[in-house]
Design brief:
Blueprint (H helix, E strand, L loop, with lengths): L1 H6 L3 H33 L9 H11 L8 H18 L16 H7 L2 H11 L4 H32 L4 H8 L8 H4 L1 H14 L11 H4 L10 H25 L6 H19 L7 H21 L3
Helix pairs in contact: 2-12, 2-13, 3-12, 4-6, 4-12, 6-7, 7-10, 7-14, 10-12, 10-13, 10-14, 12-13
Amino acid sequence: MDTQIFTEISLSEILVELLLMPVIAFLVGLVMVLWMRKIGARVQRRIGPPLFQPLYDVVKLFGKKTQVSHGVVHDIGIVMAMGGYIAAETLLPVPGMNGIAVYGGIITLTYLMMIPSLGLALGVGQCANPNGSIGISRALTAMLAYDIPFVIIVFGVAFHHETTNLVEIITQQQQAGIASWGAVQNPLLALAGLATLQGMLGKQPFEIYIAPAEIATGPMVEMSGKYLGGLFVMQAFQLYTAAVLYVSLFLGGGESWFELLAKSFVVVSIPMMIAFVFPRYRTEDLVRLFWKWPVMIGLLGVAFVG
C-alpha cells in the first residue's frame, strides 16, 4: 500500500516537500523557542523577549565573524547536528505533505534523531577543549539514558498499531476521534514519552551537559559566529521535531495545520514549565532516573498494549 501511495506522487511534489518542510520546521521552531523563553520569563516573573528576538539572534550570530575553525571535522559536525533534524522533518507526516513520510517510518526517524548528538560530539571533539569534552561526554551519556526508554516507546506504539509507518499510525488514531488516540489507548507509553521528551530536549533538570555555571556551557564553549548560529537553528528544529513526533504517536497527528500546531505547542509547554522549576540533576542521577521510571513505565505500557 505504501509503495502505491508513493508512486502516485510526482517528483515535483516530492521536491516541494523537501524544500518546504525544513523551512516550515525552522519558522515554527523559532516560534517555539520564543514560546519557551516566554514561559521561562513568566515562571520567573519577568516580561520575556520581544516577538522577533529568536530571528534577531539567528541573524546576529550568522552575521558575526567566526573567531576560529578547528578544521573540516569541526565543520562536518555542525552540519550533521543540523542535517539530522532537517532529514527527520521530511519523514514527519503533516497535513498536505505526506509524500515522503509514507515511504519512511519511526525506525528511520529514531536513527535520524540520534545523528545531531553524534555530529555535535564529532565537531566539539575536534576542538580539544576540556570543557567541551566534558560536556560532550555528558551529552552522549544523556543520549544513552533517554534513548533506551525512547526505543521501548517506539516498539510499544509499533506493536499496538502493527506498523512502523507514521502515516498509518496517525490514520488509525483518527478513525474514532479522541478515543482512538495513543494517549488514551496506551496512557503508560504516553506518560513515559513525556518524561523522555524532557530529556531529549535537554532542558532542566536534564541540562547537565551544558551546565553554564560549572563547565562554561560545555559543547558551546568553542562555538562562535556561524557555528553558534547553527546550534541555535538546530534547537529550533529539535523543538519542532520532538513535538510533532509526540503528537503523531499519541495525539492523533493533525487533520489541519492549526490542529497540529496547537497540539505541538501544548506538548512543548509541558517540559518547558517543568524545566524552570526543578534543579539540575547530576549525570549519574539522570541515567538512574531514565533507566528506572520511564523504562519501567514504558515496559508496563508494552505489557498492557492491546
